[in-house]
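Journal club prep, shared notes

We agreed each person brings one worked example of a sequence with its structure written out as tokens. Mine is SMC-Scp complex subunit ScpB. I'm keeping it raw so we can talk through how to read the token line rather than staring at a rendered picture. Sequence first:
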Amino acid sequence: MTPPDDLVRAVEAVLFASPTPLTPSQIAEHLGEGADVRRALGTLADHYAGRGIALVRRGEHWHFETAGDLAHLLRRDREDSRKLSRAGIETLAIIAYHEPVTRAEIEAIRGVQVAKGTIDVLMAAGWVRPAGRREVPGRPLTYATTAGFLDHFGLASRRDLPGIDDLRAAGLLDPVDLSIEVVSADDSD
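Then the structure, token by token:
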């Protein structure tokens, strides 16, 4: 096995020492101009594939993390997992699929009011953030998902969210919705 070149080693060291995920341009700031950071990241990703530590890309950010199948070995205390309410799950899904979205838009899609605490819980979890204000009368606040949302759900980007066919195949669509689709299809015959 040939030893890694100096650039690969330098990129590895920068990522290892960083407390937060980094973009290729942030890594390049440490290495100087002309560094082929993307090639080095590819080499490192191949090197760490299947090992106890993985080099992971979330959006445009890269970081090291424990391999998912070994994470249980590092837990000392059992985490108390709290389940999101149905309203929380629906609100998170609407924000993820429609971002940036206002509270009024979330309520229009859900058909009921969103309790202030619902969005607060999602923000406290680090999955939702304020994304600015809409340029309409009243300038309502918009919400979007965060890199923490992508990381928690193992997504590289929002494009990796499941589509309608994926949700149907997984049996996650409400049977009432499926019945309406069947009836609509029968009416068009």
